[in-house]
Design goal:
Elements lengths: L10 E2 L3 E2 L15 H9 L6 E3 L6 H7 L13 H7 L6 E3 L1
Antiparallel strand pairs: 1-2, 3-4
Helix pairs in contact: 1-2
């Protein structure tokens, strides 16, 4: 397993690898790369995910969109615990 669970590519066992919507030979940036690619191409107006170790911000940067990392505690703890644990901030892309 890579450090922090972060890979620099996005891959799905059913659909295969996600392609960066702008330079097709580049990575969409890791764990939330599919969501970043969907937002960048207009398939989705907004994405949501968790930002442990930059999991929202890095893919957003690779795909040319913005991501916000909220301060810990700004989203209800029940939502955070259900997602990835109490130390992972949840935020929009």
């Amino acid at each position: 397993m890579p450090e922090f669970g972060m890979r620099w590519h996005t891959d799905n066992a059913l659909r295969g690898p996600t392609v960066n919507p702008w330079p097709a030979g580049h990575t969409p940036g890791g764990s939330s790369g599919g969501e970043a690619a969907a937002v960048a191409t207009g398939m989705s107006p907004l994405g949501i995910g968790n930002d442990g170790a930059g999991s929202l911000r890095r893919p957003a940067q690779c795909c040319g969109v913005s991501a916000l990392k909220p301060s810990l505690g700004r989203v209800a703890a029940a939502v955070v615990e259900a997602s990835a644990g109490t130390l992972t901030p949840i935020g929009p892309r």
